[in-house]
Amino acid sequence: MRKHFRxxxxxxxxxxxxxxxxxxxxxxxxxxxxxxxxxGDSTIAGDPVSEYLSIQVGPDGRFNSGGTPxxxxxxxxxxxYAYPGAPxxxxxxxxxxxxxxxxxxxxxxxxxxxxxxxxxxxxxxxxYGDVEVKQTLQIVNGTSGNLDTGMYKYxxxxxxxxxxxxxxxxxxxxxxxxxxxxxxxVPGVGAVTTEMEFTGTNIPQYWQAFxxxxxxxxxxQGTLVRSGDxxxxxxxxxxxxxxxYADSVWDYTIHAGVSNGDSAATCWWNPVSIAAGESREFVxxxxxxxxxGTLDLAITGATSLDIVGGQWSPNPFTVTAYVSNNTGxxxxxxxxxxxxxxxxxxxxxxxxxxxxxxxxxxxxxxxSWNVVAMDAGxxxxxxxxxxxxxxxxxxxxxxxxxxxxxxQTTCSTTPTANSNGWCNSDVSVSLAATDNDGxxxxxxxxxxxxxxxxxxxxxxxxxxxxxxxxxxxxxxxxNAGNIESTQSQTINIDKxxxxxxxxxxDLQIVPLTSGMTFTYTTTDDSSGIDTATGxxxxxxxxxxxxxxxxxGVYNFSITATDKAGNSATSSGxxxxxxxxxxxxxxxxxxDSPTGAYPADSTLTGKAIFGFVSKYQKGAFVTTxxxxxxxxVADLNFHSTSYEWLVIAGSRAQYKGTGxxxxxxxxxxxxxxxxxxxxxxxxxxxxIWDKSNDTVIYDNKIDASDDSSSLTTLGGGNIVIHx
Length: 722
Known about the structure:
Residues 1-24 form the signal peptide. This protein has 722 residues and is mainly beta.
């Protein structure tokens, strides 16, 4: 299926490959910056290039590569399909919280693939929900010491506020000098011609792909294990068609015993939890390989070591010998011996002499050693077998002075706590660690919340949301193993406002008693009360209580603030009546109907009232107090005097004068019905401007003043005392 598709879309590319990439064809200039001369596609977004290697990157982040081990003398050849044509068969998969995304083909593009010629890199960024993924494809020094290796790095950053599980899969469609069925070799395993997988500690340090197992001159090498990098959890050598057309762009089950022709190499890093603000890197390497020796005996291995975290890397490094049988008979029990000079040594469980049981006529077999660098210097190591010797040089750099100083971690909180040490919202704690100049560098940061489990991160932030006090303990470790002394930070969060209780309560009607007081209490279960203030009819309350010495309608407002800055306000009306004479009292609320407020007849909402009205003993003067509030209209009516009161059975009506919001001269008539225990209480108030008789409010605006049509209460009660 794949072959037919490639033929249809790549006739022109195939022609160019035939002209430029077969052995012996005319070579490409070492300064390989014009890809169009080699069949580069117009869709290429930018391709890092050195004199040894080129990585092509498409606008969707897909990639391929090619190069030459000997610029100017050896023709360029491809090491992944179908360089120099447009890349499409090699790509990476990002797994976020169980969902799979092909990098560059889904999600939100933050940065299109962009080339940086100076650093020989191409970077792009795609985002999947909260997870931001940066792809960096860069040419770096390989085992030969030349700029002939591609670094394929994915930096995953959690830009959200909660943790996410993220995994990465990188799939490379290998092709060596147009051989799309490039065979593999793996140290300790040998030739790999069928699908095979490696996991855990069986992950090899490197793997190699060849144009032909019998001719290792044209080869590529991938590096899986390198100090400072997280090795993959799984590595598979497979048939490209099988993995490309699998049911999932993440999962794959190998077909044991099935040829890996049309070969591909795939790395998996299983999903890990990445905290809010944290970043993780996943990286592998693929580029040109190199060997030393002859067609009968050849050797491959590192030619230089890096310094990572103050130590040599890779160390130990793998050395592989290839022994070919170019005689006319089967070779049995072939001894191959490695020679290492002082300054290098073999891993303790290894021996210098390895025996290859059998090599068929025309076949090539291999054997590998793990070599340890013990001192800086320039060295030559070699292997001897079948009467020949193959040698290779390696440069081991001088290590920096030992790092004996522990790193330091800084901790900052957003938002910062107030002067009482409390926050009233979620808190983000950011951690950043630095090592001393010339030190080994920060390896990781550890933290513990309260007495919970220890967490290890590279840096970033930790979110706190629970109400209460939590202890955050943290410390850093550098690559030399120095451990910082623990530090701690107390996180105080209170997002709940205080509670307020009053006596009497809102809308309550109570009799006047000797020594009567209004009281309030405030409580807060977390940070505690910081301030509490209150007023009765605009007069400040001191000590949490206010003396009540006369009947009337009382407005109260209480505000409490806790130490975290959360505030609560409780306001309302209560009525106090004198039970010694006939009178009417009421307190409650109702839903104000459309049209009740002529200045804006569309206004509706909750209207609150409280009143007491009576004749004083031995007099015909009506006294009392009336309060009415229609908050959506910003209307607050307060009576100043009464003219008359009429009580007839369960109906009471009285007339008087008052102010709105403390100003003006307004008349009012209040009508109330005490429904008793069997019927609902009802209420009506009409307020007008006495200067021009304009109605300001009337919840039964179309009814006459003596109408029996009133509004039923939504809460509270009306009582006629006889």
